[in-house]
Amino acid sequence: MEHPVQEWQNYAYNKWLHLPSDDKNKFSTASDLTESFMVCWAQIQQEEEDVLERLCCDLSVKKEPRAVLFYKQEGNKRFGRKQYTAAAALYSKAISHASPHTEEMAICFANRSAVLFHLAHYSVCIEDIEHAQEHGLPERLKSKVLQRQSECLERLKISDPSGGVFPKAEGVDPSKLHNTGKPEVLHLKSNTQLTNAACSLQLHTSSPKGRHLKAIEEIKQGEVLIQEDAFVSVLIPDRNTLSTKRNWDTGITNCELYCHHCLERVIASLPCPYCSFAKYCCQHCMDTAWRQYHCTECSLGEALLTVGVFCQTALRTVLVAGSNKVSELICRIRTSSVQDVTPSQQEVSASGAKYSSDYEAVVNLLPHVEHHKVEFRFLCGWTAAALCKKLCLNKLGEDVGALSLSEKHNMSEDERKCGCSSEPVVFGTAILRHMLQLHCNAQAVMVLQEEQEVPYSSVESQKSSRIATAVFPILSLLNHSCDANTNVSFQGRCATVRASRSIQKGEEVTHCYGPHKLRMSVRERQKLLKAQYFFTCQCDACTQEFASGDTSTDFCCPKCSSPLKGEDELHCPNAACEHRIRKDQLLLQLQHLEHTVSTTREKLQSNHIAESITMLKSCLSEAKEFLSPNHKILGEIYDQLAQAEASKGNWKAAGVHLRRSTRLVELQYGSSSLELGHELFKLAQILFNGDYFQDV
């Protein structure tokens, strides 16, 4: 989803192959991104516009009147089966397709209010009743709906429904009725150098590391070091559910579960009045999104789905920053001999200026132009140009193909100096720059979602899911380490960085970009980091592993169980054995085992408990024959065995399996990891259900 649909990628690659040699050379040797963009802009003709338009037709975010009836009827079916959560989601889908101030929308709000009443969300139920009235609730339904409102008020112990103020009742927090996505403010002591950072951090700059942060005092485990709202964030859509080539989808995706602006979990969403895609937790978020970016993005809905999340994030960054700021900084970068206009450590200290979480910091994140393959740069430039052309067509209502890039009217002095002669060029250059930056600087926003392990199970489980892509300028100052000393959590679009262990004075504060020493070998980590982030990691973990010369693998000898060593051909270090086997043979066996374990999970979810236990025990025996005792798949097998036994009420057996799973999770993710916390939570549930209160 980060990149455009495959057909557009193929079209751009074919265009690059057949680009005239002069244009190809001009693009490859361009001295800056404005020149690169202008080459791409010149190539976007009617044919290219038609291709993009055709691809856009495969996706739809338009309001479809027939979909209102479909989703309403599906919601009614779920309501009749008392599947209230599913019914609420389907009524929300119906609302998103309904036109404002119509009977259809009013009835859908009324129906959803009934679901919310049964789910005991009384405050939100009242809000939906108010929405139903605003959109023209039919007289025939008013008495029933108003009776529901009275019952809600009674449940909330509110005696005056016309007062407009809800006194606090037991279990109700009025401040959360209109959630703005703001997490609890932790009141970090002011940092004189950095916004949104603790005073224990200091900005440093060096040639090998660039900008990075160090501790200027001892930091205790668990201390909050950074709390930062995203400069921009984009919820990741599921293109498949929006395809015009398939029937309306009753599945529930993250786009229905989270606010498209603040990324908070939504109980009852409010839709954009003009498209069926954007949904919000409250009017405040809807108004803010419209003012900042959705007023432009709304009419580009299908195009943004086609060009991918990175391109949309780049466009949204430009829209949030505003045209004046974008023009000022893009032109300043082009005319500056140093391609960075953010203050350095020395400049911050000398002037008292702060390194802020603003557009100036965003625009100066490294785009790594020299490291990206030229074909990828062309794809980004080509996509940015096509989007800008469509944006101009929407904005001006006329063909901008004839717009001269040398026009000098309405230009600022900075624009004349740098040669940025029109809004499309400035915006296009900025979008291209941000697309290249996102390859290394995009932050995945992760949340914990409930995961149904086994039907009717007494044990809740959660999984970590990526819901959005975001840009955090201060968080981006943290360099990578394969054994980082911080962890990051998210509440809505706010990132909170905490120390995962004690950090000594003078020690660099680091963040793991993904490859971790507990989950990958040093060679795997080095390969991934070089491919995505263009650097060779020299953290302590990598240095120590290389120095040790250890070539251990995740496999053990099938004959004597000693750990196998080597690269392509693995050998047993046991002198009495010396068994040899090819690594790809074991990888194939592991792949088959993983498939079987995945199949057993599906059987568990279908309530085939006895069959699942038999299969899992067989998998466990096989895994022990050729895998390291600490391999992660063993943890998955133990975890599933615990689920199966728990579903039968065998709490003691479930606890034994889950303790083994917990030990492996701790080895794999660390003693301060969220993953270990999830396992311990499940273990506590099992022990509690089995009346092992002392162990709990």
UniProtKB/TrEMBL annotation:
Transmembrane ranges, per UniProt, are none
Q: What is this protein called?
A: Protein-lysine N-methyltransferase SMYD4
| Principal location listed in the UniProt entry | cytoplasm
Question: Function of this protein?
Answer: Protein-lysine N-methyltransferase. Monomethylates PRMT5, modulating its transcriptional activity. May also act as a histone methyltransferase. Plays a critical role in cardiac development. Acts as a key epigenetic regulator of gene expression during cardiac development via its dual activities as a methyltransferase and negative regulator of HDAC1.
Provide the GO biological process annotations. Answer: heart development; methylation
Name the Gene3D superfamilies on file: SET domain, Tetratricopeptide repeat domain
Asked if the Swiss-Prot or TrEMBL record annotates the protein with the keyword Transmembrane helix, the reply is no
Domain MYND-type intervals: 259-298
Keyword Ribosomal protein attached: no
Provide the GO MF annotations for this entry. histone deacetylase binding; methyltransferase activity; zinc ion binding
SET domain residues are 199-514
Q: Where in the cell is it found?
A: Cytoplasm; Nucleus
GO cellular component terms, semicolon-separated: cytoplasm; nucleus
The source organism is Leptobrachium leishanense (Leishan spiny toad)
